[in-house]
Structure formats: C-alpha cells, structure tokens
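queue> pop job 88
queue> type: inverse folding (structure -> sequence)
queue> payload:
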C-alpha cells in the first residue's frame, strides 16, 4: 500500500481527479470505475466532471449503497449521479431498488451485472473511503459481509448503523487493478493508522492482487 499525503481535502480531490483522469485518457478500451459514497469522494467527483474528457469509454458502478430509494438524500448513487454521472456521457450501473424487492435480491442482481461488466477483464479502478470505525465500502467491523468469499456484491446488515447496506466484497476489491482510498480530517487519523497496519476492515483491502493507493490530507495522515 502506498500513502500519498496532501495538504488539505481540496488537494486530495484534485490528486484523485488527476489520477483517474490519467487512467481514462490512456485507456484504449472501456474502463470500469467503482464509485464510493460520502462527502470526500463528492469533492473529487465534482472536479472529475469538468477535468476529464473521455467519459464515453467508462462503465461506472457503486462500491456500496444504502438500502434506500434511488432518489433518497442518503443514497450513494443519487449523490454520485448529481456530482458526476448526470454531467458526463458515461454509463452508470446502479443496484435496483423497489419497495417489494429485498436487499438480498437487489445485491444478487447487481452481482450479476458486475460479473457481466467484468466478464473479460478485472475491475480497473475502485474508489473507496474509510470511516472512523475503519470500515470501507459497507464492510463494517463485525458484519457478515467480511467473511463472504463466493460473491462480489452482497446485502449486509449493519447493526451499529441500524440499517441494511449493499456492498462490494473483498473478492471483488482484491481482484481490481487499482484501489484508491480517500481519507480526510483528523477524525480519520486513527482509522488510517490502523488500516495501514492491517488492523481493521479497510486494512484488509491490501490482501489481494490490487494495487492500493491512499490519498490523505495532513490531518488524516497525522498518526501514520
């Protein structure tokens, strides 16, 4: 894992936008891009919308989602669409939601979608964040999804949040070419320190074949 420290959250967003833009610009084929939720990725998405040109060759998907309607204020897909995907000519694949659908059925359908997108290739880039508790995507400490090895995307009940989530699993993250993880603010410092030592869910993303790059501001990196 590589730690790249920047002055503040604006510089983190700018660096991530440049990194993703370079990958997309250099690609001669379709690029698959996993998107994260949260306020830190949103800053990067807003820059990417204006700084990257070749969105027509991007298949974008979500590394995790909350089990809420697709236009809900807490919906990761709605945030990513507003900040980026509705502004560019990329293809955006989102997990299905319906009041009569279960989280498990939605996750199974999305798992099939992700396998279809990556039928002949590994995921190119997956963007992630880290929570104060060390979770990444919706791989929360103590939850069942941490142990899944036979699926790429699953429903995951998170008791500490009191809600159901949908999440990429370790096998999907480990299979990617590149994982980019953003960490901003003093509240993330302890979680980032632990992750770099492999001590929390976010720290386990480096156990597979994926290259892992951490983009942190000085506050988040203060204990690293």
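queue> result:
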């Amino acid at each position: 894992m590589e730690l790249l420290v920047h002055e503040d959250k604006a510089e983190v967003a700018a660096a991530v936008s440049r990194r993703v833009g370079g990958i997309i610009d250099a690609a001669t084929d379709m690029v698959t891009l996993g998107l994260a939720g949260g306020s830190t990725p949103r800053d990067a998405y807003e820059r990417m919308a204006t700084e990257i040109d070749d969105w027509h060759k991007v298949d974008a998907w979500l590394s995790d989602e909350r089990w809420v309607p697709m236009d809900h204020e807490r919906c990761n897909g709605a945030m990513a669409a507003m900040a980026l995907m509705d502004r560019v000519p990329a293809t955006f694949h989102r997990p299905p939601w319906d009041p009569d659908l279960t989280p498990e059925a939605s996750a199974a359908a999305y798992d099939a979608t992700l396998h279809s997108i990556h039928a002949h290739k590994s995921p190119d880039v997956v963007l992630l964040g880290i929570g104060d508790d060390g979770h990444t995507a919706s791989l929360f400490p103590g939850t069942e999804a941490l142990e899944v090895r036979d699926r790429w995307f699953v429903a995951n009940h998170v008791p500490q949040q009191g809600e159901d989530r949908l999440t990429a699993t370790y096998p999907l993250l480990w299979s990617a070419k590149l994982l980019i993880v953003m960490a901003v603010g003093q509240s993330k410092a302890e979680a980032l320190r632990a992750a770099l030592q492999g001590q929390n869910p976010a720290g386990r993303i480096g156990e597979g074949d994926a290259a892992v790059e951490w983009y942190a501001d000085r506050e988040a990196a203060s204990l690293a």
